[in-house]
Write a structure and sequence with these properties.
The complex is a heterodimer of chains A (about 120) and B (about 110). With about 120 residues, chain A is an all-beta fold. Chain A has no helices and 11 strands. In chain A, strands 2, 4, 5, 6, 9, 10 and 11 form a 7-stranded mixed sheet that branches. Chain A starts with a strand and ends with a strand. In chain B, a hairpin with a 2-residue loop joins strand 9 and strand 10. By secondary structure, chain B is mainly beta. Chain B has no helices and 11 strands. Chain B has strands spanning about 5, 10-15, 20-25, 30-40, 45-50, 55-60, 60-65, 70-75, 85-95, 100-105, 110-114. Classes of the chains: A mainly beta (about 120), B mainly beta (about 110). The interface of A and B includes residues 6, 43, 90 and 98 of A.
């Protein structure tokens, strides 16, 4: 069976500090990978998606970047955090080609980031 | 631009009631619609996935309907229980910018009290 892991579960960082959040998927190969952010009282916003190693697409301009160094590893980073980067970050994976319309997405447990 | 709206934003009911959660979307060109459950501080759990060609899906006490032409979906929860307390999110999947993407509503926060 497939599982998706995220760490850390919670993180408190000062403004201006760097960030690295990690997501890994087990039990599947060549998944589509996604990073979402959920701000308080708002829906999930897609930040990045990836269909393969080294292939990253950004959905919205922002202070964050993403990388996919291995097939089942997706990393969310920032060089200098802003207060507005606080939120709940969720990683997700989906089967098959991203171009196929019917694949479900399965979500990780999330990382709660607080920037002070 | 696709927008997804969920009504109500919050709901508090006594145990045993039958519930209807509403989701509306502005662009009917969707592949499918997915309902999720999110417990506080946790990730999302998929509840039901309705393909654009389907009208409804059922799983246990949950039934989700889809009217693509009118841009609406409802999640029906029968005989609600305190364990149903969570935030329920709907999301539509559509093709945009070369890839299919999930667009989420802000959710309905449900509290079922004994």
């Amino acid at each position: 069976s497939q599982t998706i892991h995220q760490w850390p579960a919670t993180l408190v960082q000062p403004v201006g500090s760097p960030l690295s959040l990690e997501c890994t998927v087990e039990g599947t190969s060549n998944p589509n990978l996604y990073w979402y952010r959920q701000a308080a009282g708002r829906g999930l916003q897609l930040l990045f998606y990836s269909v393969g190693i080294g292939q990253i697409s950004s959905e919205v301009p922002q202070n964050l970047s993403a990388s996919r160094p291995q097939d089942r590893q997706f990393i969310l980073s920032s060089k200098k955090l802003l207060l507005s980067d606080s939120g709940f970050y969720l990683c997700a994976w989906g089967r098959g080609q991203a171009q196929q319309g019917n694949n479900e997405q399965f979500f990780g447990p999330g990382t709660r980031l607080t920037v002070l | 631009k696709q927008e997804v709206t969920q009504i109500p934003a919050a709901l508090s009911v006594p145990e045993g009631e039958n519930l209807v959660l509403n989701c509306s979307f502005t662009d009917s060109a969707i592949y499918n619609l997915q309902w999720f459950r999110q417990d506080p501080g946790k990730g999302l759990t998929s509840l039901l996935l309705i393909q654009s060609s389907q009208r409804e899906q059922t799983s246990g006490r949950l039934n989700a309907s889809l009217d693509k032409s009118s841009g609406r979906s409802t999640l029906y929860i029968a005989a609600s229980q305190p364990g149903d307390s969570a935030t329920y999110l709907c999301a539509v999947r559509r093709f945009s910018g070369g890839y299919n993407k999930l667009i989420f509503g802000a959710g309905t926060r449900l509290a079922v009290h004994p």
